[in-house]
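task queued by scheduler; priority normal; single chain, no ligands, no partner chains; default sampling; output format set to C-alpha cells
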Amino acid sequence: MRILGLDFGSKTVGVAISDELLLTAQGVEIVRRKAPGKLRQTLARIEEIIAQYGGVDRIVLGYPKNMNNTEGERCERTKEFAEMLTKRTGLEVVLWDERLTTVAADNSMMEMGIRRENRKEYVDEIAAIFILQGYLDYLKNSNN
C-alpha cells in the first residue's frame, strides 16, 4: 500500500509518494500546466504516476486554509480538484491542512544552500513531501 501526496497550486502540482510501509514520503516531480484551468493533462499525469508506483490506495491533498483557520477561494478550487481526482482515479482523497508547508519547504531549501532564485523550481515538490509526511506521521501516531 502507498499514499500519494499532492500540493495543488494555480500552475503546478507538487507530487510525493510514500514508501510501502507508510513511513516516509519521497518527492516524485512537479506537474506543470500552461494555464490555471487546464487540468486534464495534470489529472492524466497523476494517473500515470499512480500506475507507475502501484498499490496507491489514497491521495492526500494539501488544503490551503488561511492562518486564522478560515477557508478562502483557494480552498474551493482545491475541493473541486479533489472531486476531479476522485472521479478520475476512484481513490479516496483526504484533504490535509497544509498551512506553513511552503514556508517549511523554503526554510529546508535555505538550509540545504539552494539559491533563492532556484527555490521556485523545487518548492512545490518539497511542500508535497511535507504534506504527505505530516499525514503519515499522523497515521503512525493515531494507529489508523
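post-processing summary
- The helical segments are 40-53, 73-89, 101-111, 116-119, 123-142.
- The chain has one domain: 2-142.
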